[in-house]
Design brief:
Number of strands: 14
CATH topology of the largest domain: Rossmann fold
Largest sheet: 6 strands, mixed
Helix content: 25-40%
Structural class: alpha/beta
Oligomer: single chain
CATH superfamily of the largest domain: P-loop containing nucleotide triphosphate hydrolases
Shape: elongated
Strand content: 25-35%
Order of helices and strands: EEEHEEHEHHHEHEHEEHEHEEHEH
Distance between the termini: 39 Å
Number of domains: 2
CATH class of the largest domain: Alpha Beta
CATH architecture of the largest domain: 3-Layer(aba) Sandwich
Number of helices: 11
Radius of gyration: 24 Å
Length: 341
């Protein structure tokens, strides 16, 4: 594999893991994208499509960064440009300080990508697939961690089974394992838990958290917004090829100030009683309870409860719900989010 390695002093002679760039100009960022554009040419009677419209994103080193957006927003195009699979139209991008145009091999060696598609050779075993991937990245045999990675992914007992015999969740985990064979400083997880059951999802996130604790920068795309809210310290939301928000997670969630008051009643509420709450967004549940959405700056809980009592509703219990990432996502994109399956 010696011929695979470029003759570049920023790469170790024994492995493809990049050392620090010659300059620390971009030392604060694992990924930096500036005015990045991608236009897919017209074909098959379809007009040209502008997938990325001059986006700017900076992913801090050592962070867990969420990259969210509706289907077709441009997330996969961005990831594929960073991975060297798609050629950008214009703009600049760097991975771990390596410009993808000036130092493409170093940039690709700095990133591991877990794709959405289950692109696995069915006639390779998981162990063989990892060994082949490690060889392609020039990782010496003495530094390969095939069984360690397979164990972490819960695939050690399937190490010698053909990939075609694995379940969908196991194949998803094998993709994660393949992305980690060269120990990249940046790991991109594109919908990594789609089709993975709850127990294995927890196992995957435990290992991702361990990688993060050891210094790996994680970039996550997911339709499970609860996961993004819990795991990510910073989140960017892309819609129609543009960045509509990029902030620390809690600051982003704070954009939506509305709260929801859940009221459980002695008797099911009637439409006439609900209509008495004019000025508030109300919703009746199947059990007969109802919710009231309000802004604390405009109305207090006691004022709302007084209006509820005045309408003849007998209250049994109340609770409140704070805004969450889903509320912000829907507000910024104006779409109903897709449910991953």
């Amino acid at each position: 594999m010696a011929d695979f390695l470029p003759n570049d002093p920023t790469l170790s002679k024994d492995m493809t893991l990049p050392r620090e760039p010659a300059t620390d100009k971009d030392a604060a960022y694992a990924i930096e994208v500036r005015d990045l554009r991608k236009v897919y040419r017209a074909s098959g009677g379809q007009p040209a499509k502008e997938a990325l419209k001059g986006i700017d994103i900076a992913v801090p080193r050592g962070s867990i960064f969420g990259l969210l957006g509706p289907n077709g927003a441009g997330k996969s195009t961005l990831i594929n440009i960073l991975a060297g699979l798609v050629v950008k139209t214009s703009g600049a991008a760097s991975v771990w300080g390596f410009d993808i145009d000036v130092n493409p091999r170093q940039a690709r060696a700095s990133i591991g990508v877990v794709p959405q598609e289950l692109n696995i050779d069915p006639f390779f075993t998981p162990a063989e697939a990892l060994e082949l991937q490690a060889g392609l990245y020039g990782v010496p045999k003495r530094e390969r961690r095939t069984m360690e990675i397979l164990t972490a992914m819960g695939l050690d007992d399937k190490a010698d089974a053909y990939a075609r015999t694995l379940s969908g969740g196991m194949r998803r985990r094998l993709l994660v394992a393949k992305a980690m064979v060269h120990n990249p400083p940046v790991l991109v997880l594109d919908e990594p838990t789609a089709g993975v059951d709850i127990e294995l999802r927890k196992q995957l996130w435990d290992y991702v958290k361990l990688l993060h604790a050891n210094g790996t920068t994680i970039v996550l795309t997911t339709h499970y917004l609860e996961e993004a809210q819990e795991l990510c310290d910073t989140i960017a939301i892309i819609d129609k090829g543009e960045v509509v928000a990029c902030e620390p997670t809690q600051r982003l969630i704070a954009r939506v100030t509305d709260k929801k008051l859940i009221i459980r009643t002695v008797w099911p509420v009637t439409p006439a009683q609900v209509s008495a709450m004019e000025g508030f967004k109300t919703e009746v549940t199947a059990s007969g309870a109802f919710s009231i959405q309000y802004n604390p700056m405009d109305a207090g809980v006691m004022d709302i409860l007084d209006r509820v009592r005045a309408s003849g509703i007998e209250i049994v219990d109340i609770s409140t719900e704070e805004s969450n990432l889903e509320d912000v996502f829907l507000q910024l994109t104006g779409t109903q989010r897709s449910k991953a399956t």
